[in-house]
Design a protein that fits this description.
The complex is a heterodimer of chains A (about 250) and B (about 230). Chain A is of the alpha+beta class. In chain A, about 35% of the residues lie in helices and about 15% in strands. In chain A, the strands form two sheets. A five-stranded mixed β-sheet of chain A has the order 2-1-5-3-4. A two-stranded antiparallel sheet of chain A has the order 6-7. Chain B contains ten helices and no strands. Chain B is globular, with a radius of gyration of 20 Å. In chain B, helix 2 (about 5-35) crosses helix 4. Classes of the chains: A alpha+beta (about 250), B mainly alpha (about 230). Chains A and B meet through helix 7, helix 8 and helix 9 of A and helix 2, helix 4 and helix 9 of B. The complex binds protoporphyrin IX containing FE, iron/sulfur cluster (SF4) and FE2/S2 (inorganic) cluster.
Amino acid sequence: MDSYINIKVRVWRQAGPKAQGHFETYELKHIFQGASFLEMMDILNEQLIAERKDPIAFDHDCREGICGMCSMYVDGHPHGPDSAITTCQLHMRHFHDGQTITVEPWRSRAFPVIKDLMVDRQAYDKIMQAGGFISVNTGGVPDANAIAIPKPVADEAMDAASCIGCGACAAACKNGSAMLFVSAKVSQLALLPQGKIEAAKRAKAMIAKMDELGFGNCTNTGACAAECPKSVSLANIARLNREFICAKLKD
Amino acid sequence: MWLKDSSIGRKLVMSLSGLFLVLFLLFHGCMNLALVFSEKAYNTICSLLGANWYAIIGSLVIALFVLIHFCYAFYLTIQNLRARGNDRYAMTARQEGVQWASKNMLVLGICVIGFLVLHLANFWFKMQFAELTGIETSAFDPQDGAGLVKFMFAGNGAWSIVLCLLYLVWLAALWLHLSHGVWSALQTLGWSSLIWLKRIQVIGLILATLAVLPFVIVVVYYLGMGVGMM
Ligand code: HEM
Ligand code: SF4
Ligand code: FES
């Protein structure tokens, strides 16, 4: 049964990108376990505002696990200790009375801190701009069923497409590698006939961008897939490797 | 050059050089197993792989691959540390399904190379090197490999026991390195899918075990003999 708990929250506070950050511990009383983690953060911020202190900056938007805006490294896990969910889907029932919860921003060179728990994730957007699309002419919309696609293939593409670009993969990776994200974005297109045409070019362009932005080399530790809120599979990374190596060998 | 300048290219070099070394280990391990069955057979193999041109070329190629693997290991690890940034997490947790070995490949690799130096000094220097140069590097005839092995691992009193135990530590580090390395290498080559992911992980464990087990058998065989002789 959900009840009310008293907790301590140890939060990373950093005034700006260049400022020196530090941890600050706040006490929160009477938090309902049915509340979401972000609601708890809202309550904490109201408390800080009432005390005339600077509220904690953190990213959020949809609060239903689809936009990928929320981040936060909670007790050593991106998106918190529960599996296959985003921070906004995390609930206070995962914590107990008297617990100290440590909340940190994503830490990776390609994701610099903007303020407190907010990081700059434009690096992922830049990788997408480098090739994460298909080129089509505008005009009449072709019938979706005109090209038959086997169900297992469509399913696999759909699972890859469930990536919300949150950045937890690179944040969790000891090598600061973005391979799970890039492989999901390459796979969702490479698996389908419409995306196959540009598959080689896309893999090369996205990997070149990823390397340029300073992400690390994947060593298949698998922390990314274990922490991914959408359970994107490591198998996608193998597909990306395949696409890339074949494309380079053909050059 | 994409093999140096792209992350997947660098991984590919790591993967191919690692897999080549695994093949070498399988080959080396099988030959060593001969020791357990017949010292004569082992010495015949030794004479085939002594100072012949093909054995020398083979040794040079292996040394080249170790060098490539070693240099790339540091290159990759330094880049990865840099990609991680200067700020570390105050709190980290283990993720389910993430092997310890996979996060400590460089450390395990350094253990492997450290022991490798000891190993080369103990055996290669006294066998192929001695044969090549004609310099007497030990009391043993370079042709009598089995005699040397027996002396080192069983006939040298307490030192032999220590050496056996050191070798077992080495082999454990190697096995851990390979328990992640083999499947990771296959994944890097692109040989994985939703179904094959689990399979290549099992194949990796089997290959890692096959590559290390023959050496363990030989060491344990001599350890038993050495303890018996004490
Ligand atoms: C010379 C000392 C060694 C060092 C410093 C070393 C280091 C490393 C490192 C850091 C990796 C991780 C790279 C990655 O996963 O991408 C790795 C992978 C690997 N190593 Fe080693 N290693 C050494 C010796 C060996 C030996 C003797 C073998 C084989 C008998 C071996 C086989 C492998 C394999 C198969 C991989 C997997 C490649 C991959 O993940 O794509 N290594 N090694
Ligand atoms: S692969 Fe998973 S962890 Fe990485 S950005 Fe996409 S949803 Fe987030
Ligand atoms: S706020 Fe949109 S996914 Fe969490």
